[in-house]
């Protein structure tokens, strides 16, 4: 099967994603706040705030 | 870990720990507020999952799997709804047009309602929750048109298999229908809400230059009408309750607590359990963790001596409700309480049927409605097994002390 042609929606979604990738500074704050500290493994949830 | 997620989104591959994060993300959403750059890491994790799905399968396979998964959702909601609802109730929920009434609308043909009430698909499996939501809106005097079910898909099922073309097409078609409300869309399902507000609507805005509507979660809509709700919450509901919480859509849990506090007779106990994820089903990627959470919450509820464990979202109710048969408290939805105080009631057939735990007995119980709604008994049994009874993350039967 040939690769599907991108629709206007897909093109715009790719552009939005690229903008967000460029804006990310990799500071890691999103990882620090992640409530399941050992992802997909031995999960340790943060207590309820 | 975040660098790896960016690699996955850019190149389709990255370190295992980042893949595990993307797969295990339960959409709690705390990362969004934590980002000082205004980036939405939850959206990037969703895009990472899409990239991983695209890497794992050829386009033809992505589409086939998306179609199969959509069909299971469609069959499950169509069949379970038609095993529990009369023709009039199906019409109210936008699932059946009659000669007298345009399906799901409370306005005359040609008039625009105040809102579109977007149910999503899966709340139709526990339809008493959706019917209570309509009753509450009726009591508040707002006009609405109900849209939802498989004919108004949000596109998440296809996105999960990597088929962004069909996902985008389906979501755009639904979005154009949803634009009918004068003042926007009220959403019930948190999953549909996130899919529309974080993926579809901002992308459509980029394509068309404007956003066709704003979407407000039902609980946050009620929060704007709490002054109107207060005098309607007349009847005392003397229950000691605990709330099952998923904080993925910000403000919903807080609105739910405020609403419950407005009901005379309600005493809310905090079980101090972790509040994680968008809805219960978003923990499916972490089954052991999810079982642990559910068991700990049931034990805490028993220790606290509550009369009822109360959930907001429909998947939480599906996952938890059958435990009622062996724990000393009821498992109900927040709208059961709000409705009782307002003098509104719909029987929770889903819970009654699921507690039976016998597919043949369940189908026999529903035979009259199935016959009236044209549901094939063999198909019904299949859906009861696959969709109702298999939806049991923490097995029934209390663990030995």
What does this structure look like?
The complex is a heterodimer of chains A (49) and B (401). Chain A is mainly alpha-helical and 49 residues long. Chain A has two helices and no strands. Chain B is globular, with a radius of gyration of 21 Å.
Write the layout of secondary structure elements.
The complex is a heterodimer of chains A (49) and B (401).
Chain A lengths: L7 H16 L5 H4 L17
Chain B lengths: L1 H10 L4 H9 L5 H5 L6 H16 L2 H26 L2 H6 L22 E6 L6 H14 L3 E5 L7 H5 L3 H15 L6 E3 L2 H19 L6 E3 H7 L1 H4 L9 E6 L7 H11 L3 E3 L18 H18 L3 E4 L2 H7 L9 E4 H9 L6 H8 L2 H7 L1 H7 L3 H13 L12
Parallel strand pairs in B: 1-2, 1-3, 3-4, 5-6, 5-7, 7-8
Helix pairs in contact in B: 1-2, 1-4, 2-4, 5-20, 7-16, 9-10, 11-13, 18-20
Using brief descriptors, characterize the structure shown.
heterodimer; A: 49 residues; mainly alpha; 2 helices; 0% strand; B: 401 residues; alpha/beta; Rossmann fold; four-stranded parallel sheet; 20 helices; globular
